[in-house]
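Hey team,

Filing this mostly as a record. A colleague (T.K.) asked me to run one chain through the structure pipeline before their review meeting, and I want the input and output archived in the tracker in case anyone asks later how it was produced. No errors, nothing strange. Just documentation.

Input sequence:
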Amino acid sequence: MATHVALLRGVNVGGKSLVKMAELQQAAAAAGLQDVQTYIQSGNIIFSSDITDPDKIAAIVKAAIQKSFVLDIGVAVFSKAAWQKIIKSAPRDWGHDETKRHNLLVLIKPYDVNEVMTTIGELKPEVETLTAGDGVIYHSLSIKLHTRTRLTRVVGRPVYKQMTIRNYNTASKLLALM
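Output structure:
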């Protein structure tokens, strides 16, 4: 039995796709996941499963949400080992430079990291940095200059529906909970 995390896209954001975490926990358990717990209201599920294929687990979670909440949302699933590798593989200053906000753009399959990077376009290094990882993009942006971020270029584009965003604190806490 292995520990995993499922990250849901667009749950409880802007008053849309409202899902109570207690009900989400019940739906995941009813779908066969074990030791289910949720973390904050943004759709983070930590659980155990005998299934090791993240794509199969994502399909199970997606079906459970469709059945219980009548929502069609994106789901990304990572094993504890994969999530630990993502956190450890982050750029050296990601999460550690207090003059910046640090986010993790988690890509939902099928995704194309090059399409995301091309859509965002050329960055101004004094404003933000992006570094591609394994199924994620590490994003750091200046707190003072955050209104000049290029990341807003993806909002409303098809590629935006293929990602969910977690800040550094949430990404790190999920690993600790696993």
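Quick notes for T.K.: The longest helix spans residues 54-69. The chain has a mean pLDDT of 93.
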